[in-house]
Amino acid sequence: MVDVAEGVEGLIRELGGRPAFPCNISVDSVAAHYSPPPGDVSTIPANSVVKVDFGVEVDGYIADTAITITDTVAGEVLKTAVEEALKAALKMAAANVKVSALGAVIQNTLTRYGVKPIKNLTGHEIQRYNLHAGVSIPNVAAGDDARLVEGHVYAVEPFATLSEGSGVVVDVMPATIYRLNTQQPRRKTTPEDEQLPDS
Ligand SMILES: [Co+2]
Question: How far is CA 33 from each of CA 2, 63, 155, 173, rounded to the nearest angstrom?
């Protein structure tokens, strides 16, 4: 996994960009946000569903993208479903379209393939130097009355799970991706905090 992450991030730098966030390599029931820390010896198992998610930053402008790679039949269904859901959402994306309408078309497409949308992972608006800004793009017919705005940038991120899944992801430790928040005052650290591994 470290080799894949290093390869992706190395190529981004070679091509003149910078990784916008650590390359995520998430396997099977891990939906997103696992990045192998230094020294991680884990490998990608056979018969798995692997999500590779990475972003590129140039001069503060950010692209956010992901692909699913699988050697399983169930994984192929998931992959086709999310790809078709993305296509359907992009087809209707335009200024003034409600984000809930995008969520609805994503949900309907996924349901047609017999898989379930993940409710609590969403796409998002992207601003310069700000990966998660402004509105969220839901994967279900939910959300507020927010609408797409001309000139703004959005990441549309359909996430799906097999029908027996709950459609809700949970946070598990260890967290391997951190974000430096320069807007908030630093909270006091405790000796415990000092012992957390760097990632
Ligand atoms: Co994203």
Answer: 14, 16, 15, 11
